[in-house]
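Let us work through a complete example step by step.
Step 1: write down the sequence.
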Amino acid sequence: MAFITISRELAALGDETAHALAEQLHYRVVDKHALEERMKAFGVTGNKFQKYDERKPSFWASLSQDRQDYLHFLKSAILAEAGEENAVLIGRGAAMILKNIPGVFSVFQVFRSKVHLPSKNI
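Step 2: predict the structure and record it as tokens.
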């Protein structure tokens, strides 16, 4: 099986790229919603998604068992998805979780705006 993970900066169009790539390769897309559904099957409640998903926790929240449970189930969901057919995984730390798994290609997509500076005549 082959997997492509796409990590991205804000406004880098990573989701759009992932969907277009998956369509061209006939892969499935594993995004936030697919992982949430997988985690719900593990018994993770909806409020944990909002509280911990891609957010920098406060000091006390970083020590919370709830947060540790959330991260454990997120990792389990990503590994479960990787156990299935070819896929493009978007964000959620999938590149780090799958980094030692054969057949994984990771991409980091950045936003680059064109900046035109006036030329100086010397």
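Step 3: interpret the result. The helical segments are 14-25, 32-41, 46-52, 59-62, 65-82, 94-97.
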